């Protein structure tokens, strides 16, 4: 009797396993590069441009649904490494150590650059000085005080902006005094707009595409021009200065696809790296990695409207 129960239990287990495995296969079979549902982890500092891409992508391909979750850079990378998400958008490429972890998991990440973003320094509108030397900020990150800076304000202690500035300053930890952090770029903009002497560190996309409720606050801040560590000139985080490689705080944006099969992640990556996606980047105020082509209409005859009138 006991033997029969064990056999029956084993049969039920095998059937349940087969059903789950079949469900997983059906899910991937139902998903194509232009159909299905996918969840993407997004670096919060670049969320506006991603929202634009998703809106146009879903409006073009009605059977595709892209759900985004904005998180700090550290959380986005951890979700990828722990297979909590299979597609992510970040402000940096994977490190070799991270790529090695994926190799152990038998996953080959597809990394596609699609835009050049920038980190911007902002100050209160009452601050008449709209210039800042990058060295001043780097020294402040090292704990060296400066009379022109009451404090540095970041979006999140685990964000890509904090990581970027720590790398520049070559410090492991941010100073305990004079450095503040919130949760989002909007909170940084709001705080700086209300507090004189603070220098905010935000993704420039939040300034070029503010949500309606943030537009008045953006008008109450200055976007500072920055002098590089090895430069005597000041440059702004504009498309022109970014395109010419003059602005010292530019950075590439990437979509990282770890699906491991031909799914919606590949379709979305191809879309944002393609002509339409690159036009969206250009319109957003960021710099596309590929300049979208222009179609010219050639006419064999030129009509002189003045003469015809």
TrEMBL record:
Keyword ATP-binding carried by entry: no
Top-level lineage group: Bacteria
Endpoints of the signal sequence: none
Protein name: PstS family phosphate ABC transporter substrate-binding protein
UniProt keyword annotations, A-Z: Signal
Organism: Flavobacterium gyeonganense
Residue span, PBP domain: 35-274
């Amino acid at each position: 009797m006991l033997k029969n129960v064990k056999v029956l239990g084993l049969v039920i287990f095998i059937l349940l396993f087969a059903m789950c495995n079949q469900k997983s296969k059906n899910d991937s079979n139902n998903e194509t590069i232009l159909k299905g549902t996918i969840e993407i982890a997004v670096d919060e500092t670049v969320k506006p441009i991603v929202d634009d891409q998703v809106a146009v992508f879903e409006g073009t391909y009605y059977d595709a649904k892209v759900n985004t979750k904005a998180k700090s850079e550290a959380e986005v990378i951890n979700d990828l490494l722990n297979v909590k998400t299979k597609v992510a958008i970040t402000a940096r490429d994977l490190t070799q150590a991270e790529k090695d972890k994926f190799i152990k998991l038998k996953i080959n990440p597809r990394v596609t650059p699609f835009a050049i973003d920038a980190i911007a320094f902002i100050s209160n509108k009452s601050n008449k000085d709209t210039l800042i030397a990058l060295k001043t900020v780097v020294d402040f990150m090292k704990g060296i005080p400066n009379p022109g800076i009451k404090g540095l304000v970041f979006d999140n202690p685990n964000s890509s902006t904090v990581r970027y500035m720590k790398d520049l300053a070559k410090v492991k930890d941010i100073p305990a005094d004079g450095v503040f952090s919130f949760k989002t770029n909007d909170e940084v903009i709001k705080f700086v707009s209300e507090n004189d002497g603070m220098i905010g560190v935000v993704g420039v996309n939040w300034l070029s595409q503010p949500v309606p409720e943030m537009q008045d606050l953006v008008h109450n801040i200055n976007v500072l021009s920055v002098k590089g560590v090895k430069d005597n000139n000041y440059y702004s985080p504009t498309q022109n200065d970014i395109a010419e490689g003059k602005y010292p705080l530019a950075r590439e944006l990437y979509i990282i696809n770890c699906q491991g099969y031909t799914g919606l992640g590949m379709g979305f990556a191809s879309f944002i790296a393609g002509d339409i996606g690159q036009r969206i980047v250009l319109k957003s105020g960021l710099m596309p990695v590929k300049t979208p082509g222009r179609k010219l209409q050639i006419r064999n005859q030129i009509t002189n409207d003045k003469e015809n009138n």
